[in-house]
Structures are given as structure tokens and as C-alpha cells.
């Protein structure tokens, strides 16, 4: 059996990196030979979790076909969010919690896609199904991923599956998940240490919507003013990335993790469709307030998809 690489999406967040680590560990216990890798460096939040649980980040790769013939995907399926040479390898496994879009394979594959708040919750249940114990430090990372993706279980994407997994993983990792969770989330909101590129593109994903390429970034903060005091420079960076990559529209969502309040900033074309999606007008600063909107997956991409296809 040849070695396979396991990885999440570009600009990896805590879930993308953790899911690769967890699913690789699970598959190795089941007899596969795999290695977890990442399509980018861990962000500050993920570094906090890795340091807390004394774990090493997966190595970063730019391409995979030069190393392996087969790969396993976690936390994504859309090719524009994956490794650049994904079309040159066979995808044998997929574990995800997002929409399925533009995803085709030449061979059948092992796939588990569940509409949970976090893909690490899905992987937790796969461990349970196979009666395989999760090491304490890995359980801590999986707990961190769920806290990250669900904003400490406050996101509307949160399911009972996520809540049950958090309690079980916290017990294995021996941590108070609420106390730890606040500290971890705050670790990812130190905007003074982030460049303009880190803020607008550090957690960005591309989506193909009815022929337009939409780039959607999201940054967490404890004060929205900390983001938008830099708006002029952030817009310059967004426009530069659009020119470099051919994006039609660039959207940045800044989310206050303390009160679940978000502001959306848009640069480029299709502003009318953005307004249609959320039923609001952009102000003169190209922004709109979106109270209670914290999930790109559930509260941003679906209405935008409807607006672009309507």
C-alpha cells in the first residue's frame, strides 16, 4: 500500500490542520500509510492550540503529485480551495461538512459528508464507529477545532453532534473547554500582529458563483473598530489580490467573537448582488452590518449563491 497525503484547504484554519492530523492518525490505525500535511502555515489561533497541547504542525506542501499518487481530503472538496495539482492525483477519501461543488473523481471514493459545525466532529464520530481511542493531545486539538469553527458552540452551524463531541473530547484532553476556548479564540484576534494580507486573505476561500469568482475572507476580533481603522490599507490589499488572481469580487467579513456581530466590506463588481443576498444596502464605506452572522459556510455563501443564480 503506497503512502497517501491527508490535507485540508488552502489558508488553513484550526479545523483544516487538525482534521488532517486526526484523520491521518485514524487511517494509520486502520492500516493505511498516511501523512498529514498542510497547504499553509498555521494561524495564531492554531499555534496557540498546538503549543497548548504540545503538538507539532504538519509540514507545508505546495504540490502533492511529486510525492504521491493518492490523497485524502478533509474540510474541503472544491478544487479551487485545494492543492494546485489536485487534478494530477487520485482522491481516495473525503471527509467534509461543506457544500459539494465542482468536485469530480475518475474513481469511486470513500466519502463522509455531514452537515455539522466542524469536520473534526465528523472525524470524532468515525473514531467512535471504529472503537479507536483518541490520544489526549489529539483530542485537545479536535476540541480546539470545534471551538474554532462553532465560535465556542455559539454559531448557528452548531449541532448536537458538535456539543456532544466537545464534552467528550474535553474529558479526554482534561480541559475546561469554556475557559480554554475563550483563551484560544482571543489568541487569534491579535490584529496588531497581523499584516493587511493576513487580515483579508489569511482565512479566505474562493467560490465560483454563476461564472464569477468570489473571494471571501473572514477575520475574528473583539472590536470591529480594530479592523476598520485600517480599511484604506485593507482595500488596497484586496484590490491587489484581485488583480493578481482574477477575482471579480472580494468580500471581507469581520466578526466580533464576543457578541456575534459582523461587518461586511466588499470591493469589486457585483455589489448589487451582495446587497440582494443580505437584503441591505452598502453604506458609503462599502460596508454593511450583519448582526448575528458568524458563519461563512451557512450564513454567507448560501444567500450569495442564491443572489448570483437568481
UniProtKB/TrEMBL annotation:
<dbReference type="InterPro" id="IPR038222">
    <property type="entry name" value="DHHA2_dom_sf"/>
</dbReference>
<dbReference type="InterPro" id="IPR038763">
    <property type="entry name" value="DHH_sf"/>
</dbReference>
<dbReference type="InterPro" id="IPR001667">
    <property type="entry name" value="DDH_dom"/>
</dbReference>
<keyword id="KW-0378">Hydrolase</keyword>
<keyword id="KW-0464">Manganese</keyword>
<keyword id="KW-0479">Metal-binding</keyword>
<dbReference type="GO" id="GO:0004427">
    <property type="term" value="F:inorganic diphosphate phosphatase activity"/>
</dbReference>
<dbReference type="InterPro" id="IPR004097">
    <property type="entry name" value="DHHA2"/>
</dbReference>
<dbReference type="InterPro" id="IPR051319">
    <property type="entry name" value="Oligoribo/pAp-PDE_c-di-AMP_PDE"/>
</dbReference>
<protein>
    <submittedName>
        <fullName>Manganese-dependent inorganic pyrophosphatase</fullName>
        <ecNumber>3.6.1.1</ecNumber>
    </submittedName>
</protein>
<dbReference type="Pfam" id="PF02833">
    <property type="entry name" value="DHHA2"/>
</dbReference>
<feature type="domain" description="DHHA2">
    <location>
        <begin position="181"/>
        <end position="308"/>
    </location>
</feature>
<dbReference type="Pfam" id="PF01368">
    <property type="entry name" value="DHH"/>
</dbReference>
